[in-house]
Amino acid sequence: MADYRVLGIIDRGYRGAVEVQFFDALYGILDFRQQLSGVALALRGAAVTVAIDEGDYKPVVEFGPIRIDTLPDYRGSVRQLIAEGVPVMVDEPDLRALGFTAADLIEGVQCLDTNELATRWDEYDGVWFV
Amino acid sequence: MTDTTIQPAGTSELPATRKPTKIVQRRWGLLLVVTAAPHSNDVITSAMRLAQAVLDEGKTVRMWACGYANMLTQKAHGDTKLINTRDPEGFYPSSAHIVREMLAANPGKFAWIACTACSAERGATDHIAEVRFRSPLRFVSTIEAADQTVFIGGA
């Protein structure tokens, strides 16, 4: 494992479903963990919605008789990241602009002001715009 | 082997009852032109859901894949996606597999066209056999063969 700490920043929320399935941006964060000594995730823009706590969405789509139940499950991935000790942060103004508050977030997700988020960059060896 | 006599133009003698065949282009209910790239946003999923919704109404649908949408049906995908390292035993169908299944589920009612130019430009010419190549020179005639066309951009 390299002594290299990364802050992954995701601005764009949805990048495909049927063709993507597990291979979404959050999978990248989860999968790269083994190579890094530390990783954290900052969600901004529309991507803040992946950290909203809700249980209605089912990762399923049906095309006639063809059922695909392996669509991306972003909120499930955020829960997994939290469970595995990865810090997940959300930009507060972007969250508010979409009509949400910190109370709507998955438990464990940090809600930070834009400037406060930016001051965290120095804590990492790399800031990746994922 | 059958002997064939080729006559000079204008000298053929057809029986009086035989008239020149008029080629009638088949009509389709909906033509969906998709230029958005996979893995960029939810356009591909939305287009496929729209196609299915129209098929469910008993209408016919033709998909015209433009730009990077031609990556969806490449043979190189095989039937499954790459292994999910976090779920190695899981089954994750490839986009090519899903398109093939959709075509098989709707024989004669759903068709998938690959744009020859866009495929060649991207080095993505090895489509699954179920996909039909069509030149962009036939783009407008393809639109004219559909009752409705929805052009979904995003390339």
UniProtKB/TrEMBL annotation, chain A:
It comes from the Bacteria. SUPFAM superfamilies: DsrEFH-like (SSF75169). InterPro entries: DsrEFH-like (IPR027396). This is Putative peroxiredoxin.
From TrEMBL, chain B:
One of its GO terms (molecular function) is transferase activity. The keyword Transferase applies. Keywords: Transferase. Gene3D superfamilies: DsrEFH-like. InterPro entries: DsrEFH-like (IPR027396). It comes from the Bacteria. SUPFAM superfamilies: DsrEFH-like. This is Sulfur relay (Sulfurtransferase) complex TusBCD TusD component (DsrE family). It comes from Streptomyces zagrosensis. The lineage of its organism: Bacteria, Bacillati, Actinomycetota, Actinomycetes, Kitasatosporales.
